[in-house]
Amino acid sequence: MRKLLLAFTALFIAFTLAACGTTSAISNNGHTIKVGVAGTEEAEIWANIIQRGKKDGLNIKLVHFTDGNQINSATQTGQVDVNAFQHYYYLNQWNKSNHGTLKAIGKTYLAPTRLYPGKGVKSLKDIKHGDQIVIPNDPTNEGRALTLLQTIGFIKLKHDALATPNDITSNRLALKIIPVDAGQLPQQLKTVAAAVIDNGTAHDSKINPNSAIFVEPISSASSVWINILVANANKAHDPNLQKLVKLYQTTTTKNLYKKYYATELPAWDTKF
After folding, report:
1. What is the pTM of this model?
2. Domain 114-217: which CATH class?
3. Measured at the alpha carbon of residue 7, what is the angle toward residues 5 and 12, in degrees to the nearest 5?
4. Answer CATH for 9-108+223-266 from 3.40.50.450, 3.30.420.40, 3.40.47.10, 3.40.190.10
């Protein structure tokens, strides 16, 4: 019995050491990064980055959400390590409203928003007195959409920062500007004159960006709309997240944008 007990003990110790050795190898060589994303936009780009990440020992996993607020909350609490869905303006507003400590760790792309034609409209000239135009109803994109309509010359605003329809001071065509949920905008095109739709929603709804009748102009003021990779400030300098930024900001990624998302401009080495 004593010999059997000694043999069993030796076997147990050997098995435990082997298991510890395996665990150590995984933790040292395989780093999992959870990335919070919204919708299916950039699916082709992320698929490529995931494959390239494996060569650098990174296991990149996408975590899909339906709401930007949820993504930032999950990043704040550590449920995801980094997210890729928002621009500087949205991040700054979210941090202020939620006492957040999220930080941009790398630029991704700039996606000009667009005005798409609705029923009976083929150009800006077709928009008539009293027509309806729908815009996103979330504060950030609502203000951006109103600024777009001001740029066209349809309206004038008291100010551009987080503008709402109540800030319209002039509306020369007496347009009915109606904020609705962003996901409902594509369906509204069947009944309204036009809709301001962001690239992500347009992509998910398979709307041809070339059908837009007006595109947001790019200037130095566009920098606030540059999309970014975002992490909690306490993870901003994590070496694995820095690896992810480098993987993203490559010529390979630029070429993927040209192939799949020609309307989006790589922003990490471009001056606006």
Report:
1. 0.81
2. alpha beta
3. 95
4. 3.40.190.10
